[in-house]
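Check this:
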Amino acid sequence: MVIRKMRLQVGGMLKMIICCHVVALLFTTGLLLHCPQRGFVGINTDYTDLAIHVSDHDIKAECNEHCNCKEEWNPVCEAETGRMYFSPCFAGCTQKHADSHGVSCLRQI
């Protein structure tokens, strides 16, 4: 359809194919670039800062076991370490709008 609309001859088709391949190559190399892995507490990082095995992952811990957290995705990040929690509740929030003082799972500094 593009070829008909642009009325491309063989040379034009070859140029278009080469351009498409170059663009595809650029996008493919972009897939090789990635961000560093962020610690996701309960998945690839334990609540005690120790790396955990894949079979041991659990987003519930002693610091949030009495919170009755719903498993609704609402990620929050610990500003100092960059560790991510599944939701404020799983970070152990004791208040609706908690700062670092109202969160029981964060390390006490």
Observations:
- Helices lie at 2-6, 10-32.
